[in-house]
Write a structure and sequence with these properties.
This protein has seven helices and two strands, in the order αβααβαααα. With 207 residues, the protein is mainly α. A two-stranded parallel sheet has the order 1-2.
Length: 207
């Protein structure tokens, strides 16, 4: 049985213990979310196939590395606040509010469609955490803002493969990963290889 969050005996000078306890709980869920995200990204890295394999395969690994670094920052902030970060698989599975990533071996564009939904969920919840810490702990909020900058950039890299010249996302309206994957595949332009390569070059310059 994964451990329950423990009451803290101390916290950062100038902060209320009850506020810190609430922030620790919030950060623990963000830690679970980003631990799940970097595993999902690695799963995509291993299972992407098709003629556009290489650009997406190589785009994903830098995202994995940076998301892993974010989890380290979250865990260290929990400890700084007087809490005990929990990073075990059992705790993640028991406390998560989302299902496992649902796409196995598939074309690059299908994985990118599904990843758009994954990033949307992660970013939405990270923004909620950012707003929740605005008055009680601006230091934690600053960390979350910086993480959001990276997460939103990664989603842009994904969405660049899914966007039409008119600015419409092929995943628009999709509510499931399989649905988003199907829409992305159905609406993929014939010149996808050139798009993949261009975005790959953008990632190499910015990553």
């Amino acid at each position: 049985m994964p451990p329950e969050p423990a009451d803290i005996a101390y916290t950062i000078p100038g902060m209320d213990v009850r506020d810190s306890q609430d922030i620790i709980e919030l950060l623990q869920m963000r830690l679970h979310s980003l631990n799940d995200l970097h595993l999902t990204l690695k799963h995509v890295h291993w299972n992407v196939v098709g003629p556009h394999f290489i650009a997406v395969h190589e785009m994903i690994d830098p995202q994995v590395d940076q998301v892993r670094a974010m989890t380290d920052d979250l865990a260290e902030r929990i400890s700084t606040l007087g809490g005990e970060p929990v990073g075990t698989p059992g705790a993640l599975v028991e406390r998560r509010t989302w299902d496992d990533y649902s796409i196995g071996r598939a074309e690059a564009i299908e994985h990118l469609g599904a990843l758009d939904l994954v990033y949307t969920s992660v970013i939405r919840e990270h923004r909620e955490a950012m707003r929740a810490t605005e008055s009680s702990d601006p230091v934690t909020q600053d960390m979350l803002i910086e993480q959001l900058r990276g997460l939103e950039l990664f989603q842009w890299f994904v969405r660049a493969h899914l966007e039409s010249s008119g600015g419409r996302l092929s995943t628009r309206g999709a509510t499931t990963e399989t649905g988003a994957a199907g829409q992305a595949a159905e609406q993929a332009p014939k010149g996808m290889a050139e798009v993949n390569f261009a975005v790959h070059l953008v990632w190499r310059r910015h990553g």
